[in-house]
Design a protein that fits this description.
33% of the residues lie in helices and 18% in strands. The chain is of the alpha/beta class and 267 residues long.
């Protein structure tokens, strides 16, 4: 069993750790580690994805990866998609990309976890219960995967859902300013924002921090910054909006390219 994941602030890693308790022989690999590979082959009979929802859809980095992934036509494929408010059409989008490659999504499982979007922040009082409930939800999912269940995909794939997703992306990028990244004078140039970036989009020198144009919109740089020096346009972190998964460290996120190391945890 191969399971591919993507994370910025740790929720996917937390889910993968729970999955590993049920599937000890499964291999967990970061989607970010496949940058630059034009085609990826996987002949596993069971393949899973653990990814977040962005703008009620799958992240572009996930879409691109799956479009390059070549699976067996008879592979059993499942997806765990975590979300703050709603998963929208994420499962149907993922299935559409898989079908283009001659495969299909057999099981889709949504898990509600705290949102890291800053705008739609999850109340601090609700977060412990969400983390606790995730454990039981993953156990149910593991049982479904073991039984090779195939059920109708959650959510809808309507034109309106697609329009809402595109409008949400436009508002975040152009109006709120996710495309306009900078650091404030409190930046110490420690380099952590660069280290946690899964796509190497941040360059830090002694006197400058440069954000490139290859952002995966995972919000890792803004949430992991110890000085809260990173700004995305109008977005500014507060005690109520800052979020990283409590059982995941920055070191875990940095080691994404090392497959299992960040799933088992770091000292």
């Amino acid at each position: 069993m191969n399971i591919y994941y993507f994370t910025g602030t740790g929720n996917s890693i937390a889910i993968c750790r729970e999955l590993q308790k049920n599937f000890e022989d499964a291999k967990f690999t970061s989607i970010a580690s496949f940058a630059g590979r034009t085609e990826i082959g996987d002949d596993s009979d069971v393949v899973g994805f653990v990814v977040p929802t962005y703008y009620m859809d799958i992240p572009e980095i996930v879409r691109d990866f799956v479009s390059r992934l070549r699976l067996r036509p008879d592979a059993y494929v499942f997806a765990v998609i975590h979300y703050g408010l709603a998963y929208g059409r994420a499962f149907h989008s993922l299935n559409g990309v898989l079908e283009t490659g001659g495969c299909k999504l057999s099981l889709g499982w949504g898990i509600a976890l705290p949102d890291n979007s800053i705008v739609f922040k999850t109340a601090l009082a609700k977060q412990p219960a969400m983390h606790s409930e995730m454990t039981g939800t993953v156990s149910e999912l593991a049982a479904a995967v073991s039984d090779r269940r195939s059920v109708p995909l959650p959510g809808r794939n309507s034109a309106i859902m697609g329009l809402n997703s595109r409008m949400g992306a436009f508002m975040f990028r152009k109006v709120i300013g996710v495309d306009r990244k900078r650091v404030t004078e409190v930046c110490t140039h420690c380099g952590l924002c660069s280290d946690v970036c899964p796509v190497n989009n941040v360059t830090v020198s002694e006197d400058n921090v440069v954000f490139g144009d290859n952002c995966a919109e995972c919000f890792a740089c803004i949430h992991w910054c110890p000085q809260r020096a990173v700004r995305f346009g109008l977005l500014k972190l507060t005690d109520k909006s800052k979020y990283t998964n409590p059982v995941v460290s920055a070191a875990d996120v940095i080691s994404q390219n090392e497959a299992l190391s960040n799933i088992r945890g770091t000292p």
